Amino acid sequence: MSAHDGRASVTPVTVHPPLGTGGRRVTVGGEILGLAYSDADVVEFLRRIGLPEAEGLLDDSGWVKWRGGHAHHYEAA
User: Fold this and answer.
1) 50 backbone dihedrals φ, ψ, rounded to 5°
2) Residue 2 pLDDT > 90, yes or no?
């Protein structure tokens, strides 16, 4: 099940480690949502998949998994 259907049992959105050029790839269920350079980008990706209250989900590990680097940090490592 994916975040697309909004149910409680969801595939979390993954924010991958910062790239060498900056930005972080954002995926859900293996599908690339885009390259984020800020929290606003991640929020927009979440809004596009049907999560209108996405801003409040960034620190909810049930919805968003931050991999590598620090959460909310988008600069090159």
Assistant:
1) 100, 20
2) no
